[in-house]
Structure formats: C-alpha cells, structure tokens
Target: CubicO group peptidase, beta-lactamase class C family
Amino acid sequence: MTLSQDLQALIDAECAKAFTHGLILRVASGDGAVDFKGGSGAAVSDTRFPIASISKMFTAALIMQLTDDGRIRLDQSVQSILADTDMSGLHVVKGVDHSPLLTVRQLLHQTSGLADYYESDLAADLKKGNDRSYDLNDVLQMTQALPPQAAPESGRSYYSDTNYQLLGAVIEYATGLTYDQALQSRICEPLGLNDTQVLQGTDFGLPVYHRDALLNVPQILTSMGPDGGIISTLDEMLIFLRAFMQGQLFKQENTAQMRQWNRLFFPLQYGYGLMRIKLPRWMTLFRATPEMIGHSGASGSFAFHAPEPDIYLIGTFNQTDASRRPIKLMLRVLDLVAKDRGSR
Model:
C-alpha cells in the first residue's frame, strides 16, 4: 500500500469507532499536502470548522506582536493595562490576593494559577447544548467562584481559559479594536486568510458533537473568542501554522522564549500559547518519537508541527469526547510517514 492508502485506512479505522461522526486530517510537508477524511461529517479543505483552543495560538501571536511594537510588556501587570477592569479578589491563595500583580507573561505561559472559568457550569452547559453568551465580567465572576489552581509561578503551568480571556482584553485595550478586528488586521489580512475569524452568527461549519448529541452553541463559541472561538479551514490553518512556526508573525528572537516548556499534564508541556508533545522513551520501548509543537482543542481539533520530519498535522474529530484521540492519531500518522520514508 502507498502512504496515502495507509493514511486513509487509518482514518477509516478511526471513523469506525464509537462517537465518530466525521474526521478530517491534513498531512503536509515541504513538498506538498494531502487531505484525508471520513465519516458522515467529513469535509473538504475549504470547509470551515471550530478550531477551539488552537485559538490561543492566534492570541499568543497577537500578544507577541504588541510587545514587538512596544505597546505592552510581557512583565507588565495586567491590572495596569486593564485599569477599568476590577480584578481584585480574582486570585486569592491562602489569604493573599495575587490579582493586582498578575503579568501578561504569566497569563501567556499559563503560570498564573488562575482557576479556569470553563470548568464552571459552562463546560456542562456546552456539552448539554445549553447555549448562552457571556462577556469578560461574567468570566471574572465564574473564575472567582472557583478555587484557584495554584499561586503564581508555582513551578509548572496550569491550564486556564481565563488567562486567555484576559489576554483578549489586553489586545483590545492596546489596539483600540475588538479582538476579531485585531485578528483580521494583524494576522488574517497579511496572511491572506479569508475564512478565519471569531464565529459570527450561527454557521460554524462542520457540526460538533458530544458523543452522539449534536451541539448547537454559537453564542458560547462566539463568547470564547481569544481562548477558543475562532473558526477556520484546513487550507488557512496550514498557512497560519507555517507562518507561526517559521517566525513570520513576530520577531524571530521571540521563538526561543515562547518555547520555554513547563509541565502541564501528561503528556503535554506548555510554552507561550503552545503545547509540546514528546513521549518518554520508557513508553515506547525506548524508541524515540518525534517532538510535536502546536495546540489542540476541546472539540478534538489539532494543529501541530513535528520539526524533525518537518511534518504539519492539522484536523479535527468535531467531538468534545475525544481529548486523547488527536495525540494517538498524530503519533500513528508520523509512524506511517517514517516507515514510508525508510522504505524509499
């Protein structure tokens, strides 16, 4: 079988599993790209789909652009930027209110220790299809109602969508634009991305499921904005991912600090709006596996670059009950690519 046939067989096998209504995958290298699809919800390369938390990569790129421009500083307190937003009491650990001193860098690197507003009743509402809109004030209230994850700079990253909601507000203050306007003018227009935007209206492309339940939650997705509300296509995600990894969106010297990896939760590490996957040798019978850098999302979306074989992997399961499946799928794809290259 050819590599394309092996990859399509892999997709078909995934689509035969429970709660798989549609899976799309793009595998790209320096010499081209190939799309694979399967299931009733499959799509072509220009069909839009919710990218969920991959949106954080766009937010991170915008923040780095603003630091390049001198409009903000990474070690500047968020409260000093958002002077009209009351952050007091947002992050109290053992009686100490850390809220006024939280920095842009801590939000970006997920080292603030802030509670994740998504883990309030919002996550349950989304999975039940209970749609509702919310704004930053609502996010802060939801966060305050939850226990903090840790004090700032506790030695690791703690995933929190609250961090990126606040970064979205920083972007709006620093640019004088809405988050989507900043996204369009600073990333989408320069890269020629015409179908990438924060969700507007009710058409978010491919349907998203929680198990077998079709989710119709456009208000929630729109409200997620900087932490998970962007929709895009395979074509445009590849353009963005390449530009991000090749340092075309911000100064090249930023790349190294954005890849200061902290432990997140196994097998993920976190940088500045970036995830890193690198399995330890003891898990793979002491066989080395490729490093993958990018981001995944709660909808089963993924966008990663494996630098060593120089392979880009983009796609989605469109399934909120598929948190681990993208990682397993990408590792299988890279293994097939390696075997194909080894046989030439």
The chain has one domain: 3-342. Residues 141 and 264 are 25 Å apart (CA to CA). The first helix runs from residue 3 to 15. The mean pLDDT is 91.
